[in-house]
Task: inverse folding
């Protein structure tokens, strides 16, 4: 039976089975507990809203025997002779004035807005928290290191989004590796700011060479310790050697220095079912694509993809750019940005059928840690994400370079300067979209505090002479700083003097009185605080360099010691921008 036919005999509008509860402001399913289940809507998994009784009223207690008590909801609406009229054209007696579409959209948006990838799911789920059946859909893994749940006001948090290439689900035999337990095929570290105004989604290339630390997995037999590996592909942090998502979380923490609070993982079916649930996702191509491997077949310009074509779009490696995983990541970021826009559109937010289908598809596709492994906890997550506007969600890729150890380039390693700059920016909770204002605010504050010491002329960068010593304890810190000074900052007269005589806690710049203009310039370039500048008493010779000793507070080449980190020169995709894949 199709959606239009259900309830027609009793003149019940199928869309009216979802009503707005004025007590909570939430859309809720008008459950008739005594009626049988109606047939599932074609193309949607799981139960559909049950048909109402002939009377259109709920049983007196509003619930099935043995089910948890739910708040009462308004009685079901019936079709009327004309919208807003009674039998004789008069307004029906005793009825509340119906809320406007704008008001209903605002309520739905509160539950579904401001999210990315699988996180957007939680918003749709939150609108139907009474529907306990969704709880049974969600799969959980008890991983070591995950947060116990709950989100503290004024505190940033990080969620690891993992797409596995395990061949689970119907029609997926052609994807991924046969008989493999799966890998971390697509990985995004989703950082939510403390003030809930912005988010940064950093993609981690699967072919990144990194170290995987020792980790623990929890099984029915108890806790199992899995040894780590050095210099291996990042995607082996999941599935291989029995590693669970907790191992991927720990690998990301070791790589970036950022703690990971929770994870969300989905397989190929997530893309197929969620795109179908929202009626497809708009994508744009600069040229037509016909890929025999992924079966992707799309014309140039804008198309709407769902199901198998949506999965082919995000999986193909031979249709865009130079056919690398890095180019595939760009396409995936563009796709997820479009999916966010679709999920926040009126077309989705005001459609009970689409919201229900999205919640059903999402909860069936998700595997999460136990800290967020229930509808109520996912709803809490949705509330934290609601304020974020898509224009303030920025996708970026961990900056990398070709692996210098390989003759035939197949893997990548973190960029020695830009990667640390991006990590520092995220640690400082600095938005990629709002960074310019924050940088200016920090510069103003720092300028006021250091005005007395740093007031005066600056030398040109090419005139600055400095010897760099490594007292930080970080291998390669001095050389990385020299590379940055010479290649990015224009300080060509800089020299690596290797390790300092001993480690020191803070970075210092020692200079002579007649080198003050050089010291001010270097302090500007490196973001050195006034406390780092140590002026001597004797004048320096014409070619004598200053002495910079990197301390334990050193955060990375080009990363300021004060104020927010500067945005590295990397490609970014903002979720509200439409971009065509090339």
Result:
């Amino acid at each position: 039976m199709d959606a239009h036919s259900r309830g027609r005999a009793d003149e019940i509008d199928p869309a009216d089975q979802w009503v707005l509860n004025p007590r909570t402001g939430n859309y809720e399913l008008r459950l008739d507990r005594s009626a049988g289940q109606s047939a599932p809507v074609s193309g949607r998994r799981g139960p559909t809203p049950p048909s109402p009784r002939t009377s259109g009223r709920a049983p007196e207690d509003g619930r099935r025997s043995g089910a948890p008590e739910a708040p009462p909801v308004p009685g079901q609406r019936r079709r009327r002779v004309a919208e807003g009229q009674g039998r004789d054209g008069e307004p029906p007696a005793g009825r509340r004035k119906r809320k406007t579409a704008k008001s209903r959209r605002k309520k739905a948006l509160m539950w579904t807005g401001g999210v990315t990838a699988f996180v957007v799911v939680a918003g749709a789920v939150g609108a139907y928290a009474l529907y306990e059946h969704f709880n049974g859909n969600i799969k959980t893994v008890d991983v070591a290191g995950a947060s116990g749940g709950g989100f503290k006001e004024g505190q940033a948090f990080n969620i690891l989004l993992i797409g596995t290439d395990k061949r689970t689900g119907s029609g997926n035999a052609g994807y991924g590796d046969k008989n493999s337990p799966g890998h971390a095929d697509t990985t995004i570290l989703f950082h939510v700011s403390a003030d809930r105004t912005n988010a940064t989604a950093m993609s981690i290339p699967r072919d990144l060479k990194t170290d995987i630390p020792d980790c623990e997995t929890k099984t029915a037999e108890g806790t199992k310790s899995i040894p780590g590996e050095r210099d291996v592909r990042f995607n082996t942090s999941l599935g291989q050697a029995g590693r669970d998502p907790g191992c991927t979380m720990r690998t990301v923490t070791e790589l970036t220095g950022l703690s990971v609070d929770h994870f969300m993982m989905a397989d190929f079916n997530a893309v197929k079912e969620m795109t179908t649930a929202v009626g497809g996702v708009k994508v744009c191509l600069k040229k037509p694509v016909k890929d025999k491997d992924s079966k992707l077949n799309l014309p140039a310009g804008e198309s709407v993809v769902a199901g198998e074509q949506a999965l082919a779009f995000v999986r193909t490696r031979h249709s865009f750019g130079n056919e690398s995983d890095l180019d595939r990541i760009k396409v995936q970021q563009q796709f997820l940005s479009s999916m966010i826009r679709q999920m926040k559109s009126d077309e989705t937010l005001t459609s009970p059928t689409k919201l229900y289908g999205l919640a059903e598809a999402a909860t069936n596709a998700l595997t999460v840690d136990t800290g967020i492994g229930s509808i109520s906890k996912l709803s809490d997550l949705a509330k934290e994400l609601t304020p974020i506007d898509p224009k303030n969600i920025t996708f970026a890729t961990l900056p990398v370079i070709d692996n210098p150890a390989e003759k035939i380039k197949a893997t990548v390693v973190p960029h020695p300067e830009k990667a640390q700059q991006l990590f520092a920016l995220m640690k400082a909770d600095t938005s990629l979209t709002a960074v310019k204002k924050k940088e200016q605010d920090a510069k103003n504050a720092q300028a006021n505090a250091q005005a007395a010491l740093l007031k005066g002329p600056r030398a040109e960068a090419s005139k600055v002479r400095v010897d760099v010593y490594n007292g930080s304890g970080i291998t390669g810190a001095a050389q990385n700083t020299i590379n940055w000074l010479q290649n990015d900052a224009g300080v060509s007269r800089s020299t690596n003097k290797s390790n300092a005589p001993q480690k020191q806690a803070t970075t210092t710049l020692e200079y002579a009185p007649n080198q003050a203009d050089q010291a001010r310039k270097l302090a500007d370039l490196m973001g050195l605080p006034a406390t780092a500048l140590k002026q001597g008493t004797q004048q320096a010779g014409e070619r004598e360099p200053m002495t910079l000793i990197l301390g334990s507070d050193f955060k990375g080449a080009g990363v300021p010691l004060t104020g927010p980190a500067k945005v590295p020169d990397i490609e970014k995709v903002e979720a509200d921008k439409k971009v065509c894949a090339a």
About this structure: Residues 1-18, 31-97, 101-130 have pLDDT under 50 and may be disordered.
